[in-house]
Amino acid sequence: MFAGVYRAGKYGHALSVGVEWQDFLARRLEFHKAGLRLVDVASYSEGGKQLFAGVFRAGGDLSAFKRGSWHDFISDWQQLSKGGLFGSLRLVSVDSFVEGQEE
């Protein structure tokens, strides 16, 4: 089952569903080059595989996408929130999942 949130607007958008990690990263890069930014991500287990779904929408703003353990997640969040050369980034979506376990 899937659930989604929709909002009004006339802007470019895309959806990627049912792909493994490396394919998801490749699609994100492809969409990024087309001017679309990842705005929501989810992961789920299906058929013994960890799959990813992402929602993309038009935008030229700076964005980052990180995945890792809780410790890595907090460390990335603190580092990106501090800012740097391009300014600080704000967390806008989060998902948690367990990898490496049977369904």
User: What general form does the structure show?
Assistant: globular
Q: For the record, give the distance between the C-alpha atoms at the N and C termini, rounded to a whole number.
A: 15 Å
Summed over residues and divided by their number, the pLDDT gives a mean of: 86
Main β-sheet description? 3 strands, antiparallel
Uncertain runs are: none
Give the strand content.
25-35%
- Total helical elements: 2
Rg (C-alpha, Å):
15 Å
Major sheet: order of its strands? 1-3-2
Give me the strand/helix succession: EHEEH
Number-wise, the strands total 3
Structural class of the helix and strand makeup?
A: alpha+beta
DSSP helix fraction: 25-40%
Structure notes:
The protein has 103 residues and is of the alpha+beta class. The chain folds into two domains: 10-61; 62-94, no CATH class. It contains two helices and three strands, in the order βαββα. The chain has helices at 21-33, 70-82, and strands at residues 13-19, 36-46, 49-58. The chain has a three-stranded antiparallel β-sheet with strand order 1-3-2, covered by helices on one side. The model has no long low-confidence stretch (mean pLDDT 86).
Name a few traits of the molecule.
103 residues; 2 domains; three-stranded antiparallel beta sheet; alpha+beta
List the helices and strands and how they pair.
Blueprint: E1 13-19, H1 21-33, E2 36-46, E3 49-58, H2 70-82
Antiparallel strand pairs: 1-3, 2-3
Quick recap:
With 103 residues, the protein is α+β, with helices and mostly antiparallel strands. It has helices at 21-33, 70-82, and strands spanning 13-19, 36-46, 49-58. The two termini are 15 Å apart.
